[in-house]
C-alpha cells in the first residue's frame, strides 16, 4: 500500500461515523493516512468508529463536534496538524429537505462555511467534498447527455440538492478569490450501495429507509413487510427507473485517488475540479431487486405502486474524467454489492443497535 508516500499530517474526516465516511476512514488507514474523525451523530452513532478501530487495529481520534460550532472545531484544529479535510458531514434526505429547508440550508451550508473559515485560519487548504448526482436534476432533459458528463448543466430540484450545488459554487468562488491557492475536489456520487466485505461496517439508516437497497435488506430480515416499487411506466427496459449503483468501497477509494491527485497539484496553482464517481452502467429497480433476491436467496415480496415525486428516469454517470485523471474506476458490480450488503445485514440484522456484536462475531480486542 501507499504507506511510504502518505503524508504525516492528519486527514480530518467530517461525518466519518456515517455510511460513506466510515468506509473511507478504513481505506485511508489502509493507505497509510492518519485520520481524525468529527461527527455530531445526528445520523449515526459511535459504534462504527469502535468497529473501524477493531478492523484496522488503529486508534482513531474522535470528536463529537457539530460543524456549525466554530469554537469546538477550532479546538480540534489546535490539537492536531490537519493538512486535508474530507467533508462528508451533511444531511441527505431528499424528502425531509423539502419539508425542512431551513434545517438543511443551515446544517449543510453553515457547517461548510464554518469548516472553510476554520481551515483558512489554520492554513489547511485541501478539501474533498461530497457532492451528489442530484445536482444534475433531471438530466434526461438533455438527451445527448446520458450517460451524464460533468459538463451537463446542473439543475437540482430539491433543497438538499440545492445545498450541494450552493457549496460547489462557494468552493469555486473561494478558489477564484485567493492568491494562496485552495485545492478542492468536488465528487459527485451516484448511488452508493453495499457494505464493507468484512460485514463489520455498513449502512444503518435511522427510521424507515428512503433508499432502495437498505429498504430491500430490511424486507429480507422481515423488519419491513414488502418492497414498494415506485412506478413501472418509465421509458426503460422494464419500465422502472435507471440508476448508477456503486459499491461503497469503490466510492471510498475514489476519495483516496482524489487526495493523491490534489497532492500532485502545485500549491501556487491550486485547483477546483468536479469529478463524477459512478460506474457508467445503469441498472433498473427490477434488475437490482433480482440481484438482491439472488444474493439473499429469498423471493422478496414487492408491490408496484405509483411513481415517487421528484424521481427521474435515468441517472447514469459518464465516469471518463475520473478514470483518466484520478486513475480510478469501479471494480465491483451490483451483484457483488448485493452480496456484501447481505453479509452485513445477516451479521447485523438490526444495524448498529446491537452493540457488542463486534465482540460476538469478530472477537473483542
Ligand atoms: P450519513 O448520514 O451516513 O453520514 C453523514 C454524517 O454526517 C452522519 O454521521 C451525521 O451524523 C454527520 N453530520 C451531519 N451533519 C453534521 C454536522 N453539522 N456536524 C457534524 N456531523 C454532521 O450519509 P452518507 O450516506 O455517508 O453521506 C455522506 C455525504 O455524502 C453527505 O454529505 C451526503 O449528502 C453525500 N452523498 C450521499 C449519497 C448517498 O446516497 N448516501 C449520495 C450522494 C452524496
Ligand atoms: C433508487 C431507485 C426509486 C426506494 C437518492 C438521492 C440522491 C443520492 C442517492 C444523496 C429509484 C426506487 C427506492 C423504494 C423504490 N443521495 N425505489 N422503492 O432516489 O436515485 O437517489 O440517493 O445525494 O440525491 O435522491 O436513490 O435509493 O432512493 O432510489 O422503488 O422503497 O429505487 O424510485 O428509482 P435515488 P433511491
Automatic annotation (TrEMBL):
<keyword id="KW-0413">Isomerase</keyword>
<dbReference type="GO" id="GO:0003978">
    <property type="term" value="F:UDP-glucose 4-epimerase activity"/>
</dbReference>
<keyword id="KW-0520">NAD</keyword>
<keyword id="KW-0299">Galactose metabolism</keyword>
<dbReference type="GO" id="GO:0006012">
    <property type="term" value="P:galactose metabolic process"/>
</dbReference>
<feature type="domain" description="NAD-dependent epimerase/dehydratase">
    <location>
        <begin position="11"/>
        <end position="269"/>
    </location>
</feature>
<dbReference type="GO" id="GO:0030246">
    <property type="term" value="F:carbohydrate binding"/>
</dbReference>
<dbReference type="GO" id="GO:0005829">
    <property type="term" value="C:cytosol"/>
</dbReference>
<keyword id="KW-0119">Carbohydrate metabolism</keyword>
<comment type="pathway">
    <text>Carbohydrate metabolism; galactose metabolism.</text>
</comment>
<comment type="pathway">
    <text>Carbohydrate metabolism; hexose metabolism.</text>
</comment>
<comment type="function">
    <text>Mutarotase converts alpha-aldose to the beta-anomer. It is active on D-glucose, L-arabinose, D-xylose, D-galactose, maltose and lactose.</text>
</comment>
<comment type="similarity">
    <text>In the N-terminal section; belongs to the NAD(P)-dependent epimerase/dehydratase family.</text>
</comment>
<protein>
    <submittedName>
        <fullName>LAME_0A03972g1_1</fullName>
    </submittedName>
</protein>
<comment type="similarity">
    <text>In the C-terminal section; belongs to the aldose epimerase family.</text>
</comment>
Amino acid at each position: 500500500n501507499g504507506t511510504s508516500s502518505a503524508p504525516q499530517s492528519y486527514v480530518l474526516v467530517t461525518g466519518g461515523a456515517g455510511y460513506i465516511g466510515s468506509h473511507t476512514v478504513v481505506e485511508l488507514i489502509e493507505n497509510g493516512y492518519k485520520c481524525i474523525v468529527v461527527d455530531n451523530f445526528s445520523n449515526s452513532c459511535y459504534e462504527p468508529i469502535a468497529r473501524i478501530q477493531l478492523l484496522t487495529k488503529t486508534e482513531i481520534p474522535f470528536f463529537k463536534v457539530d460543524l456549525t460550532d466554530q469554537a469546538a472545531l477550532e479546538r480540534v484544529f489546535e490539537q492536531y496538524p490537519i493538512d486535508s479535510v474530507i467533508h462528508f458531514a451533511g444531511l441527505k434526505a431528499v424528502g425531509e429537505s423539502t419539508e425542512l429547508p431551513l434545517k438543511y440550508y443551515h446544517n449543510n451550508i453553515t457547517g461548510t462555511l464554518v469548516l472553510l473559515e476554520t481551515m483558512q485560519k489554520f492554513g489547511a487548504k485541501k478539501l474533498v467534498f461530497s457532492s451528489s448526482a442530484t445536482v444534475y436534476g433531471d438530466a434526461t432533459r438533455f438527451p445527448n447527455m446520458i450517460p451524464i458528463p460533468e459538463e451537463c448543466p446542473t439543475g437540482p430540484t430539491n433543497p438538499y440538492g440545492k445545498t450541494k450545488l450552493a457549496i460547489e459554487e462557494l468552493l469555486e468562488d473561494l478558489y477564484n478569490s485567493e492568491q494562496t491557492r485552495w485545492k478542492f475536489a468536488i465528487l459527485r456520487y451516484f448511488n452508493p450501495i453495499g457494505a464493507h466485505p468484512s460485514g463489520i461496517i455498513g449502512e444503518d439508516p435511522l427510521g424507515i429507509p428512503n433508499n432502495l437497497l437498505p429498504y430491500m435488506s430490511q424486507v429480507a430480515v422481515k423488519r419491513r413487510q414488502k418492497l414498494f416499487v415506485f412506478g413501472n411506466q418509465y421509458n426503460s427496459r422494464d419500465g422502472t427507473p435507471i440508476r448508477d449503483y456503486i459499491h461503497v468501497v469503490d466510492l471510498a477509494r475514489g476519495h483516496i485517488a482524489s487526495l493523491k491527485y490534489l497532492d500532485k497539484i502545485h500549491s501556487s496553482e491550486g485547483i477546483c475540479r468536479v469529478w463524477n464517481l459512478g460506474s457508467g452502467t445503469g441498472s433498473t429497480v427490477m434488475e437490482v431487486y433480482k440481484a438482491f433476491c439472488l444474493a439473499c436467496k429469498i423471493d422478496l415480496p414487492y408491490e408496484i405502486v405509483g411513481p415517487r415525486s421528484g424521481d427521474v428516469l435515468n441517472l447514469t454517470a459518464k465516469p471518463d474524467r475520473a478514470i483518466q485523471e484520478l486513475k480510478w474506476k469501479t471494480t465491483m458490480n451490483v451483484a457483488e454489492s448485493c452480496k456484501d450488503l447481505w453479509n452485513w445485514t445477516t451479521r447485523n440484522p438490526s444495524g448498529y443497535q446491537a452493540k457488542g456484536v463486534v465482540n460476538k462475531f469478530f472477537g473483542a480486542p
